Amino acid sequence: MEEKDSKSTHTPHFSIPAKTLGLIILLAIVASALVYAALLPQKPAQNTTVLKNVEESETVEDTTLSIEPAENNSIRNRVYDVNVNTGKNKVTAVQIELVFDPNVLRNVEISPSEFFPNYLVLLNSIDEKNGRISFALTLPPKENGVLGIGSIAQIKFNVSSQSAFPTFIEFMPKTEVSAENISVSVLKETIDAVVDYQIISVSPIP
Q: Which position has the higher pLDDT, 74 or 82?
């Protein structure tokens, strides 16, 4: 009878010190807490200065420019007011860029009106060939900005009877309005003029 050698297997037993085991558990808890915190929705920090600037940038534009016929117009000779309504803005300067049909409007002129008590004319250019008006005026240095409604400039021109009507005097994108303590244009809206061969009567600005 053959004898079979029996081999006994020995499974080693590792013991972990209690302190080491506690440290591992503690690290696992801390890691879990950090992962949980990272996955939470982050509430953006509120910067009061940025929020204030955003709010101001959304509300500073409050000035309207419009062009309307003045009184005492005739069929051929016209006067139109460039009117301003500043809203809450204290206006210090205005740059007006306009286009018109040079085949219809002739001998075009623009001049300051009474809205600014004192003013400096920075630009006054009429391009009769291409139908373009460039006009800018400002208050003198250290003058307070002006609030209210009134005429900032007057446009005078002759109307040709040989052209199609109506025609328009239109504001261009470069039109801007400056105001106290505001670094951007405060222009909110522009309203173009309609020029017809017939006279349109209007009421004077109150």
A: 82
What's the rounded Cα separation, in Å, for the pair 99 and 131?
Answer: 5
Closest CA to 140 of 118, 159, 156, 110: 118
Q: Identify whether 52 is part of a domain.
A: no
Q: Which pLDDT score is estimated for 108?
A: 98
Q: What is the CATH number of the domain that holds 145?
A: 2.60.40.680
Question: Which has the closest alpha carbon to 158: 128, 200, 114?
Answer: 128
| Cα 136 to Cα 115: distance, rounded to the nearest angstrom | 13
Average pLDDT over residues 27-31: 71
Q: Judge if pTM exceeds 0.90.
A: no
Domain count, the chain: 1
Distance CA 34, CA 28 (A): 10
| Eight-state DSSP code of residue 130 | T
With beta carbons less than 8 A apart as the criterion, state whether 67 and 83 touch: yes
Domain that holds residue 108: 62-195
Alpha-carbon Rg of the chain, whole angstroms? 38
The pLDDT value recorded for residue 6 is 46
